[in-house]
Amino acid sequence: NKLMVFDRWGELVHSTENFPASSLDPSHGWDGRFQGKNVNPGVYVYYAEIQMMDGRVSTRKGDLTLLR
Fold it and tell me: Which DSSP string corresponds to 11-41?
């Protein structure tokens, strides 16, 4: 249902919602850019809401390290 990525100061650098679970379209993911520019390597935080086949909504959150 939702994917959000934040920088270390809590600024939202990527957000996408309501995309099909079976989609392999890379435009639904984050490409490491913000406002059209590459962001600096570092640690970013993600938050995802995932709707399961039975209708339950699961949340996942964590961090990722962006390397260039």
Answer: -EEEEEES--TT---GGGS--SEETTEEPPS
- In angstroms, the CA 41 to CA 50 distance is 27
- Tell me: the pLDDT tens digits for 7-65? 999 999 999 998 776 666 777 789 999 999 999 999 999 999 988 889 899 999 999 99
Output the six-digit token pair for 48: 């995802």
Dihedral angle sign, alpha carbons of residues 42, 43, 44, 49: positive
> Counting beta carbons within 10 angstroms of the beta carbon of residue 53, is it exposed (0 to 12), middle (13 to 18) or buried (19 or more)?
exposed
pTM for this entry: 0.84
